[in-house]
Amino acid sequence: MGWKRKDYRDFSVHVYSAGEDGCLANSYIVETASHLLVIDTQYLLPYAEKVKAMAVRLNKPIVRVIITHAHPDHWFGTSVFAGEQIYALPIVRMEMEKDAVTAFQRNKPRLGDKIGDEAVLPNHTLEKGRFVVDGVEFYVHEILNTETSSLAVLEIPAEKILFASDMVYAHTHIYVADNHIEEWIAALKSCQQKSFKNIFPGHGNDFSPRVLQEEMNYLRSAGKVIAEAKSFSEFRQRMLALYPYHAGKLLLELNAMFLVLPLGSHSETDA
């Protein structure tokens, strides 16, 4: 939890990581010579406000706020950036517009003032391909059918770094309820082949490429357990036994609402 910073030749990356109650979600501020680019805005308002406070402290205009995908732990905090240029891929915008009201209604009774009263949604479309901020080249790629149906990852080729969003989790439990295991592993293998020096994950604080193999191992384990488990409780118990030192137990619990198991219901979960 808290801030980390990595400096490169033409920019710096400020990393903010939420606590367990915020799903260990990461937000990133890329600080170029004269501007800031914010990637993801957190789940809970107290954490989102920390990200906004850092942007204010850096005292440079925000050129873009990018929401990488439609899961609430990465965008519920966008209300603190109301008035900024907020970008998301077309599919992500569509999913957010379709599901935002339901997502807020589902979460508000439990979270109360920790989230806003209404959704602040993207007001610009994030295009795939190249854009430049103060001479720093970014490339936007859309990754399909991994943790979710569509998510944006941002590459800075000059420094061989990738903002991987929830394609990559580092030493944490993983939300796997969409069950795109094989496609997700294929995406991670493709990422391995690009030999990135740093990979900034959606959750967790290890930025080294070695996390990719660990994640592939976890996904294979999760796929096997999903195929065999008769309840969410069994799924949870087995994943905790296989990965007892992983952080993010709340991330594991988030699977309960959406994970469909072969022989029956996840409704008996005590989550």
Characterise the protein shown here:
With 271 residues, the chain is an alpha/beta fold. It is built from six helices and twelve strands. It has a seven-stranded mixed β-sheet with strand order 1-2-3-4-5-6-7. A hairpin with a 4-residue loop joins strand 3 (26-31) and strand 4 (36-39). Helix 3 runs antiparallel to helix 4. It is globular, with a radius of gyration of 18 Å. The two termini are 24 Å apart. Residues 264-271 have low confidence and may be disordered.
Per-chain topology:
Elements: E1 2-7, E2 12-17, E3 26-31, E4 36-39, H1 45-58, E5 62-66, E6 86-88, H2 90-111, E7 124-125, E8 129-133, E9 136-144, E10 150-156, E11 161-169, H3 181-193, E12 198-203, H4 211-228, H5 232-242, H6 249-253
Parallel strand pairs: 4-5, 5-6, 6-7, 11-12
Antiparallel strand pairs: 1-2, 2-3, 3-4, 8-9, 9-10, 10-11
In round numbers, the mean pLDDT is: 94
Radius of gyration: 18 Å
Sheet with the most strands? Answer: 7 strands, mixed
**Category by helix and strand content:** alpha/beta
